[in-house]
Amino acid sequence: MQPEPVVYAEHLSKRFGSFTAVDDLSLSVQQGEIFGFLGANGAGKTTAIRMFCGLLTPTSGIARVAGFDVHTEARKIKQTIGYMSQKFSLYEDLTVAQNIEFYGGIYGLSRAEIIDKTNRMLEELKLEERRHTLTRSLPLGWKQRLALSVAMLHDPSIVFLDEPTGGVDPISRRNFWRIIYDIAANGKTVFVTTHYMDEAEYCGRLSIMYQGRIIELGKPGELKEKYGLKSMQEIFVHLVGETEPADKPNIISSTENG
Ligand SMILES: Nc1ncnc2c1ncn2[C@@H]1O[C@H](COP(=O)(O)OP(=O)(O)O)[C@@H](O)[C@H]1O
Ligand SMILES: [Mg+2]
User: Fold this and answer.
1) pTM for the structure as a whole
2) Closest-CA residue to 90 (of 60, 62, 130, 56)
3) Ligand 1 pocket, mutate which of 12, 15, 16, 192 (most atoms under 8 A from CB)
4) How many whole angstroms from 47 Cα to the centroid of ligand 1?
5) What are residue 24's phi and psi, to 5 degrees?
6) Which of 11, 40, 179, 227 is an S-S bond match for 245, by CB 3.0 to 4.6 Å?
7) Ramachandran angles phi, psi of 233, nearest 5°
8) Taking a C-beta distance cutoff of 8 angstroms, is the pair 198, 173 a contact?
9) Which phi-psi region, left, alpha or beta, contains residue 249 (left: φ > 0; alpha: ψ -120 to 50)?
10) What is d(CA 31, CA 45) in angstroms, rounded to the nearest whole number?
11) What residue's CA is closest to ligand 1, atom 10?
12) What is the whole-number distance in angstroms between the Cα of residue 198 and the centre of ligand 1?
């Protein structure tokens, strides 16, 4: 028997007025998986993730995270998960150490735990010398690594990362994914969104999102075999009929021939 999925959705939809941002989404993610959402801007990735995090109420459908219902147990979900929002979530005008202390307080850690976690985190991230640096002045790749560590401060079993590597160079992205692998290797579940094709390849399983719907779901290797194609990029182009979504704000309405 399969253990209960840690993220589960059945016919989940979100409408804003007459516009459907997430359309009849069903999926199931097991503990320890690295599960990805690949899609262009506007595909509905953030809206879906915010429903899973208990931050946005679905219009219809069912969703459970860590066994908790997003409709009625959003508070418990928020205590159980880590969330790194798409928009940079740390305070730019606090120092590195102050950010860690601030979030430690929010997550209800004791004073001693906060001191201990802060020291360990700064050592792990090799940020000891930047302890008193304003977060604003860190390079973006470092900020994102710090934001990920902060999202894991309370040792959540599931972490939701919404385009965590947006705007970062390929080498920093690769380093960031090494950390994602470490997190999953410790038995934690990682739910990540991206519009980068190379990152789609790193996911254990992923779903391709288009106009609010999941149009394909599977392991990268299985999908390549199914379509007889060599990369996720080719599969995306094949399914969506467009070029790479990266850096195209409005791929869905853009046309090739002008
Ligand atoms: N609060 C809102 N009100 C109206 N439309 C929204 C709202 N939030 C998101 N949308 C729309 O829903 C669609 C999906 O957005 P989003 O989930 O942010 O996509 P993604 O994260 O894949 O870029 C977009 O067209 C966006 O404009
Ligand atoms: Mg988004």
Assistant:
1) 0.90
2) 130
3) 16
4) 6
5) 60, 55
6) 40
7) -60, -45
8) yes
9) alpha
10) 20
11) 21
12) 24
Instruction: Check: CB of residue 101 under 8 Å from CB of residue 113.
Output: no
Strands 213-218 and 189-194, bridge-based pairing: unpaired
For atom 7 of ligand 1, the residue with the nearest CA is 16
Ligand approaching nearest to the C-alpha of 85: 2
pLDDT digits (tens, 9 = 90+) for 162-175: 999 988 888 889 99
DSSP classification of residue 4:
P
The angle, 0 to 180 degrees and rounded to 10, between the axes of the packed helices 96-106 and 111-124 is 140
Tokens for 216, please give them. Answer: 């394909």
What does the alpha-carbon distance between residue 100 and residue 119 come to, in Å, rounded to a whole number? 10
Q: What is the arithmetic mean of pLDDT over 28-42?
A: 96
Pocket of ligand 1 from Cβ distances under 6 Å: 16, 19, 21, 39, 41-47
7-89+158-169+186-240: CATH topology: Rossmann fold (3.40.50)
Read off the tokens for 36: 């990805």
Helices within the chain (DSSP H only): 45-52, 74-80, 96-106, 111-124, 140-151, 170-185, 197-202, 220-227, 232-240
CB atoms within 10 A of CB 185: 10
d(C-alpha 135, C-alpha 160), whole Å: 22
Atom of ligand 1 nearest to the CA of 40: 22
Q: How far is the CA of 19 from the centre of ligand 1 (A)?
A: 9
Considering every ligand atom shown, identify the ligand nearest to the alpha carbon of residue 42 and give its number: 1
